[in-house]
Design brief:
Length: 420
């Protein structure tokens, strides 16, 4: 388990909600570490003196449990029968969306005294519809992401206090391989092993979580849409212009179909959708969203050898996920004459602006990147993140080295208290 000790932020969040009258919902991409987090938490409970008779741990992907998937009464009896309900008990239900009418099971356990309920799911639909209605105000969601750059280096046992590391080379490892926890363990076997692993995960997500669940017949169109979005991370997209592009390729896919497929991909945590925010009118816009990939390593599968997405967009993707980890709500900013990569509302409700570029190469880049932030005339903090080792602030904009920012080693910044 030593590879997972650096998921302590998630663990401490779970511990903070222990025995509180809330259902704990851990959501995120398949294989991003949800089951491992539960296992880690279970071990922590045992160390705290909780007895085996107080814990039930079920993973509904396991073959042995399939007899319960359509039989709630037996499943409920199976769980209750294992517990000593005279003491506080902890029930973990992993990939609970596989259970038919799981909402009723979760609710039934939740209302029983002395039961603390924890559930995971690889699909955002878990919290839409019935469950959200049934449990409104009674659950806390913790979204888990694959390894951050910092967690990735820790998992590789790299000493990040060493100021002389070649961060650029390590960053390329991070984005060219994978940020998924198990993928880091596979590094020793060479890149082929990582590639096979990513391929298998992606196939499972598409098969189990999307095409089977939503009965998608046109798998080719679905695959092409996914590849198109992956090759255009950080570019404004709309279902209409995606459908148009596919049409030039001889495929007739209606806008509404494109939109549905995008929703499924976002709900399965493959992509994250970022809405545009009108900086002048101060309102969210309904078109031309940007999409970012949960793990840029997946570009190997989705965009293949011709990973056309440039370094700037890949860096932007990594920065987006990091802003998400740090508890921000995120939009992409737009006004009549400029765009800014990210407008963030922090956990404390403050606004921050971020512009991301790979390098300050030449005068035109410097003008463009600083200019985008300078055009915003308010006094909220503005940050420019690049890979340059020499950074220079201008007009109150903080220019930071992006690797230091990702590792929280920038002295100019307060150390963010990372909450998921």
């Amino acid at each position: 388990m030593n590879n997972y000790t650096n998921r302590e932020e998630y663990l401490s969040k779970l511990l903070a909600y222990k025995d509180k009258d809330l259902i704990k919902v851990v959501s995120g991409l398949r294989r991003s570490g949800k089951s491992t987090l539960f296992e880690l938490y279970r071990q922590t409970l045992l160390q705290m003196g909780v007895k085996e008779k107080q814990i039930v741990f079920l993973n509904f992907e396991e073959f042995e449990l399939r007899k319960f998937l359509n039989d709630l009464d037996s499943l409920y009896a199976h769980i209750i029968g294992q517990l000593d309900l005279s003491k506080p008990c902890y029930v973990f239900l992993d990939e609970v969306q596989n259970v038919n009418e799981f909402e009723r099971l979760v609710d039934g356990l939740f209302v029983k005294p002395n039961i603390d309920v924890y559930i995971t799911g690889s699909n955002a639909f878990l919290l839409s519809g019935e469950l959200a209605t049934l449990l409104s105000g009674r659950y806390i969601e913790i979204s888990i992401l694959p390894f951050s750059f910092k967690e990735y280096l820790t998992a590789r046992k790299i000493d990040i206090s060493n100021r002389y590391l070649n961060y650029e080379a390590l960053f390329f490892d991070y984005v060219n391989e994978t940020s998924l926890p198990k993928g880091v363990e596979l590094r020793e076997g060479g890149f082929d092993k990582i590639y096979e692993y990513l391929e298998a995960i992606y196939a499972t997500i598409v098969e189990k979580d999307i095409t089977q669940r939503h009965q998608i017949n046109d798998k080719r169109a679905f695959g092409n849409i996914t590849k198109f979005v992956a090759s255009n991370i950080g570019n404004p997209l709309s279902p209409g212009n995606i459908a148009k592009t596919l049409k030039q390729d001889g495929q007739n896919t209606h806008n509404t179909t494109v939109e549905k497929y995008l929703d499924y991909l976002v709900a399965s945590f493959v992509f994250y959708k970022v809405n545009r925010f009108d900086l002048k009118g101060r309102k969210q816009l309904a078109t031309q969203e940007k999409y970012y990939l949960v793990d840029v390593g997946l570009l190997n599968i989705l965009a293949g050898k011709e990973r056309t997405t440039d370094r700037g967009h890949i860096l932007e993707n990594v920065v987006y996920l990091e802003l998400l980890r740090r508890g921000n709500k995120i939009w992409t900013g737009t006004s009549r004459n400029s765009e800014v990569d990210f407008v963030c509302k922090t956990k404390t409700g403050d606004i921050e602006y971020y512009q991301v570029a790979w390098k300050m190469a030449g005068e035109s880049t410097i003008e463009r990147e600083f200019g985008a932030l300078e055009k915003i005339n308010d006094n909220y903090p503005k940050f420019l993140l690049t890979s340059d080792s020499f950074t220079q602030n201008r007009s109150g904009i903080k220019h930071l080295n992006v690797f230091n920012w990702l590792l929280n080693t920038d002295t100019e910044q307060e150390q963010p208290n990372i909450i998921i």
